[in-house]
Write a structure and sequence with these properties.
Blueprint lengths: L9 E11 L6 H4 L4 E20 L2 E2 L4 E11 L5 E8 L4 H11 L6 H6 L2 E4 L3 E3 L2 E5 L2 E6 L3 E7 L10 E2 L11 E11 L4 E18 L2
Parallel strand pairs: 5-6, 5-7
Antiparallel strand pairs: 1-2, 1-13, 2-3, 2-4, 4-5, 8-9, 9-10, 10-12, 11-12, 12-13
Amino acid sequence: MSQSAESVAWWARGLLFENCSCAVVCPGHFHFSQKCTHERCKGYWAMHFDEGKFGSVDLAGVRVVVVFDSPQIMIEGNWTRVHLVDESATEEQREALETILSGRAGGPWEVLARFVGQQLPTRYLPIRYEEEGRTKRVVIDGLMEGEIKEIRGRDKDRPVRFENLFNQIHAPSQVIALGSTRYDDGHITLVNEKSHGLHSRFDWSVGK
């Protein structure tokens, strides 16, 4: 890309879901100054880009997982984080995603990047997403199996939601879920069982 990252206009929309080791709901989801359930907060954000552009690069169809390990009070920083990108992404898409997720392109990921102490090398692997009713899954063979299921509300035909909640990467309306995950890359290990989960439709833009 010939332009500097700071000057590239970009936008993206799609599905974002997460699971971490906290009890429902993760205190850090409300604000990073809140004390998470356990000594470490370990989890992931899984993203499917339905549409988007980074300059002239089309982001539609891209699949990404960001796995993190943070201290109990997340605002203290020194997170360990790794980007997992579906191997089908083109070289241009890979470069665009790395620029966005590293925070060099501004937007919500610039805020999150401030807390990262160790960024592990990005890995390019086949990532599968599955949606069955109120269940969403992400699978990377030999590395990760993650699943969230929407919790049931009084009206069983409607999801239980947060409304008008501020979060850097999620939409203001978020569906609450329970998640279970198995993941181990030798640096970060997740063994979550019916812990914090939720999903929303993200909508990010910078300079658009």
